[in-house]
Amino acid sequence: MAPQTRYTESRLNQDHVAAFRFYIEIEGIIKGWFTECTGLSVEREIFEYKEGGVNNFSHKLPVRTKYSNLTLKHGMADDELWKWFDEGSNNGLVSRQRFSILLYDASKTKVKRWNVFDAYPVKWVGPELKSDSNQAAIETLEIAHHGLEMEGWKDA
User: Fold this and answer.
1) N or C: which end of the chain has fewer CB within 10 A?
2) Per CATH, is 16-37+68-151 categorized as 2.30.110.20?
3) pLDDT tens for each residue of 35-78
4) What pLDDT digit, counting tens, does each position of 94-152 carry?
5) Which residues have C-beta within 8 Å of that of residue 104, sequence separation ≥ 6?
6) In contact, 116 and 37? CB cutoff 8 Å
7) Where are the domains of the chain?
8) CA 63 to CA 41: how far, in whole Å?
9) Using CA atoms, how far apart are residues 70 and 72, in angstroms rounded to an integer?
10) Contact between residue 34 and residue 138 where contact means Cβ atoms under 8 Å apart
11) Which of 104, 86, 103 is nearest to 95 (CA)?
12) What are residue 72's DSSP bridge partners?
């Protein structure tokens, strides 16, 4: 006799969301789809305090939150990302943007949103050009930011 589980096969298929359908939204307008997004990472730094006479543990106190840079990749279609990166190249006056990364499920329903604050590009990488390749021309943009918030499954 097979063991019983709480989940049916259809329930299991609904519990996860594929990570391949996501878009970038700026000022309420979807600006484009990307082939890859990495760096959605938050880390809390801690201060470790070793109290005298307490030998079985040390206190770990929260200090600050660190956000990783985001890296976005997509097929080259226009020069919008380059223009954003190039702003401030000569005078240091970068254009900070608030934008959102939207994740959609297979039925094209928005299921998750990450809002990114005070973001600006710190690195642009152009496509690899090879005469013997038929790969799409992919550009990469690395973005620094001052934080992000995640809206849950119902709020997105």
Assistant:
1) N
2) yes
3) 889 999 999 999 999 999 888 999 999 999 999 999 998 887 67
4) 989 999 999 887 777 888 899 999 999 999 998 888 888 888 888 899 999 999 999 87
5) 21, 22, 23, 110, 111
6) no
7) 16-37+68-151
8) 17
9) 7
10) no
11) 86
12) 37, 141
